Amino acid sequence: MxxxxxxxxxxxxEECFVEGGWGSALANHFSRTADVVLxxxxxxxxxxxxxxxxxxxxxxxxVGDQPLALTVFxxxxxxxxxxxxxxxxxxxxxxxxxxxRSIISYFRDCWPATKIVLITPPPIDEDGRLRNxxxxxxxxxxxxxxxSACAYAKACLAVAAECNVPVIDICSKMQEYPDWQKSFLxxxxxxxxxxxxxxxxxxxxxxxxxxxxLETLPADQPLYSDIDRKDALKTxxx
Length: 238
Prior knowledge:
Layout: E1 4-9, H1 11-14, H2 22-29, E2 35-40, H3 46-57, E3 69-73, H4 93-110, E4 115-119, H5 126-130, H6 146-163, E5 167-168, H7 170-174, H8 180-184, H9 193-209, H10 232-235
Parallel strand pairs: 1-2, 1-3, 3-4, 4-5
Helix pairs in contact: 2-9, 3-4, 4-6
């Protein structure tokens, strides 16, 4: 069976296979070398992720097999402000960190050889959240703020350092660019095609650092360029 790369996260992961999404770009990138498996759960925080992680991962790999790599991308919902419209999704900062540790421990116990990559929550465009027609902002206050998102991103970085897990700081990376609010975020939270492209490129670089790249992974079945033009079937007997 082809090796697998598993994407575990909230709505930013669940929708990552849309046209221009970072997950679909990753699947295309590894199209001949690995299967990209999507496990995204819109609206979920780390508290809920812990409740379903075992069921979510059931059947992904055959017994005795392990994914090559796995991304853990939560925090955007945990960082919802507790006294606003999405307060039921809020998870206190210290609990968020504890939940991330527990998720990492779960995967290390199940799949000790799998490379785990954390991804911080993205920054928040508060104006974009106020304009979002799917959120009840009757108070004229965004249910998420950039200050809160950045605090959870820093907490994610701290857990990554503590647990010695690679991490992509998409929160800081995006804010290095002018007009990041509208360039990278379509509704103040979810990624545009440009934002998805940035995350895809950062993830490919991180996986390459972990020796997981097109150069190090074997292709599935003989490449067309390797087929013997004089005796094609001979190629498949090797």
